[in-house]
Design a protein that fits this description.
4 helices, 73% helix
């Protein structure tokens, strides 16, 4: 159980740092594109950034047995995988 919680937390942190953080910076740098439609992606990426918090918390030994944290991490993984698939399928 402890390894599963730590593994999901690490995967959440890595997926955010590799995919969502650069996407947020590129949208902010470009101002959302020509008509500003890129700014519509920011709420999605900000929600994905919020899953970094339980990912980091799961690395602490005190919380490595928390079932609630595991459920939050798994829901974050499912959402992250969906949005990565959705944005990469273009």
């Amino acid at each position: 159980m402890k390894k599963l919680i730590v593994t999901t937390g690490i995967i959440l942190i890595i997926s955010n740092m590799v995919f969502f953080v650069p996407m947020t910076f590129s949208v902010l740098r470009s101002g959302g594109g020509g008509f500003g439609y890129g700014l519509l992606l920011l709420p999605i990426t900000i929600v994905a950034h919020l899953y970094i918090i339980p990912g980091v918390i799961s690395l602490f030994k005190k919380y490595q047995t928390s079932i609630g944290l595991l459920l939050i991490n798994i829901s974050g993984l499912i959402g992250s995988v969906f949005w990565i698939w959705f944005f990469s399928s273009n």
